[in-house]
Design a protein that fits this description.
Distance between the termini: 61 Å
GO molecular function, one term: sigma factor activity
Number of domains: 2
Keywords: DNA-binding, Sigma factor, Transcription, Transcription regulation
Number of strands: 0
Structural class: mainly alpha
CATH architecture of the largest domain: Orthogonal Bundle
Family: Belongs to the sigma-70 factor family. ECF subfamily.
Shape: globular
Radius of gyration: 18 Å
Strand content: under 5%
GO biological process, one term: DNA-templated transcription initiation
Helix content: over 70%
Protein name: Sigma-70 family RNA polymerase sigma factor
Number of helices: 9
CATH topology of the largest domain: Rna Polymerase Sigma Factor, Chain: A
CATH class of the largest domain: Mainly Alpha
């Protein structure tokens, strides 16, 4: 694979790879470093990339594995940056609404972060990255039916945990 083919196949997916890395690492700088490492590994393997059915699936799998390795070796779960709050402030909503949205986002990040790894990955790929079930099948190696079950359970768990959190906070 030459430079032009690499630019056409690999570089357009770097945004998705960054979001997958940030999902696992919860730190912008760590996610950027991981993205750089994955892109370097893909570049050094560029001659073998044509043998893969989906370079994007390979790249997502490499990103996921590298993130899991970093989490195991560092055992560091750093705090999220305030990018969501900054985006809300730019939208021109009141401070009360900003606080509500920020709190809700924080609760949802915590709930999703507590999901088992397969549920977290499938939920992210489907609902955030908008992958098709076939693309998720390529990345994870799971069957489409298994993906549907995992996704359904993940969504149900997030929904139940969110409602439980809100009911508890309201004093019910």
């Amino acid at each position: 694979m030459d430079l032009q083919a690499f630019k056409q196949k690999v570089l357009p997916v770097q945004g998705r790879l960054f979001r997958v890395a940030k999902l696992f690492l919860r730190n912008r700088e760590e996610a950027e470093d991981t993205l750089q490492e994955v892109l370097m590994k893909l570049w050094t393997k560029r001659q073998q990339l044509d043998t893969y059915q989906s370079v994007e699936a390979l790249a997502v799998q490499m990103t996921r594995n590298l993130c899991l390795d970093k989490l195991k070796s560092h055992a560091n779960r750093t705090t999220e940056d305030n990018a969501d709050l900054t985006a809300v402030q730019a939208a021109g909503v009141s401070p009360y609404q900003q606080t509500e949205l920020s709190d809700t986002a924080s609760v949802l990040r915590r709930i999703i972060g507590e999901l088992p790894e397969p549920q977290k990955l499938v939920l992210h790929l489907r609902d955030v990255e908008e992958y098709s079930f076939e693309e998720i099948e390529e990345v994870t190696g799971l069957t489409v039916n298994n993906i549907r079950v995992i996704l359904s359970r993940a969504r149900q768990r997030v929904r139940d945990s969110y409602l439980k959190t809100n009911d508890y906070e309201a004093g019910y």
